[in-house]
Request: fold
Amino acid sequence: MSDLVSAQSATSSQATPSASAGRDAQGDTGFARLAMVTIDCADPVALAAFYGELLGWESRHVDENFAILDNPEGGSPLGFGRVIGYRPEPWTQPDGSKHFHLDFYVDDLEESTAKALALGATEPAYQHGRTLRVLIDPAGHPFGLAPLE
Reply:
């Protein structure tokens, strides 16, 4: 983590608003900044390649245990960490055992869905019935595509 924090501090100072910008009406601020979102998986190389293509982000680091994609807009990067014995989240289980999901805005929902499917995503039969299209990444994590309207 210390390497990540060192690498982030160089870019975060440029991309992070001043401390006063984050204050609420009482002048309180949080005491932590998001360093990275890390997604557990069985194959970090493959999952980083999938999201790199989906988002158009470049890899900062890739090995068999961990991969990092840099956010070109200056925000937090995405990390992918190997977990031995990883099992995908059961997206449609009634017990609500889904742990997280990512949502992405897209210009054209049908075209973006087709591109994501071509990259290796799958489309579950169950959908919310809204404009959000739920897909499953190659490691079994649900993610959503929504038109930017």
